[in-house]
Specification:
A six-stranded mixed β-sheet has the order 1-2-3-6-5-4, covered by helices on one side. By secondary structure, it is α/β, with parallel strands linked by helices.
């Protein structure tokens, strides 16, 4: 059988759910049509770009075969465009692939000839703006540091900030798996620097969980209070019901918020939640947030499994 080639990101936009794309800046503009995204932590070589082109051709071939089976014509708009993200690229490499700047796009975005359906984004050449923030975080060294400075400066409720945090770790996980090696020291420093931002998101999730719990508790408390009011008086029953509902709602909200944070961090760090990872959620929740948050951000999968298998 032929070699299996894995695609980092294959995305097709939902025409009914595209209203949030502008908040992602340049990435949102890219995602307006079906796309394959191949990000590289180090500068992409000529061979690696050729491998990406092979993936695109294989996807196109599969789409064509499916259209033939259904006796349909494959619409050009259904064929994904390949976007290669590389921190740097030499002028010679770009010239070898016929990639040129398009006046309608930002500096650093190079389009190969039309039939190749391929674009190379040289991250370190992108202008410094919110429109390119998400992509510049995937750069290296000073470019990446500047982008994280800008991310930290955004308000906590800024949609670009929250969307960037959600997407960044997914792509970084893909890079780690594909390159099959330990993170470099610079990458570890970046992850540790992002830890406070994740802590803020965690606290926000807990607060939202508390609010939902309080609302549910109040509603249940009112219902319970009305029933008790037949015996003790409607007013006294409502007050007691609200008090009980608030306490239970807050506790449930905190527990649900912490469970959501643990689940999301495991999924972002290690991909899909398998049985082994699912089995350590409860032992992790037995710890305080101050204990389990650094573990989830710093320990490897093997270290987490070894530690919490022993606790079971």
């Amino acid at each position: 059988s032929g070699e299996v080639r894995e695609i980092d990101v294959w995305f097709a936009p939902d025409s009914e759910r595209t209203s949030n794309l502008p908040t992602l800046g340049l990435l949102g503009r890219i995602a307006q049509t079906p796309i394959l995204i191949e990000p590289f932590r180090n500068a992409a070589s000529s061979d690696e770009i050729c491998d990406c082109l092979l993936k695109l051709l294989e996807v196109r071939g599969e789409l064509q075969r499916e259209a033939n089976r259904n006796q349909l014509k494959l619409a050009p708009a259904a064929i994904p465009k390949l976007w290669i993200l590389t921190p740097t690229a030499s002028a010679t490499l770009l010239e070898d692939f016929g990639a040129k700047v398009d006046e309608g796009w930002l500096n650093g975005v190079y389009f190969a000839p039309k039939n190749f359906r391929t674009v190379i984004i040289v991250i370190h050449q992108l202008p410094r703006s919110q429109e390119t923030l998400w992509l510049r975080i995937l750069g290296r060294g000073r470019v990446q540091q500047q982008a994280i400075d800008e991310l930290e400066a955004l308000p906590e409720n800024n949609s670009l900030r929250s969307n960037t945090l959600k997407l960044l770790y997914n792509l970084r996980q893909n890079l780690e798996v594909r390159q099959a090696k330990e993170l470099e020291e610079g990458d570890r420093e970046i992850i540790m620097r992002l830890a406070p931002l994740y802590q803020q998101d965690r606290e926000k999730a807990i607060r939202e969980g508390e609010q939902r719990g309080i609302q549910q508790g109040i509603q249940r408390g009112i219902q319970q209070g009305i029933q008790q009011g037949e015996q003790r008086g409607i007013q006294q029953g409502i007050q007691q019901g609200i008090q009980q509902g608030e306490q239970r709602g807050i506790q449930q909200g905190i527990q649900q918020g912490e469970r959501l944070v643990v689940h999301n961090l495991l999924q972002v760090r290690f991909g899909n939640m398998d049985e082994e990872l699912a089995a350590i959620v409860e032992p992790l929740l037995a710890l305080s947030p101050e204990e389990f948050t650094p573990m989830l951000l710093q320990l490897s999968r093997e270290e987490l499994l070894a530690r919490f298998r022993e606790s079971n």
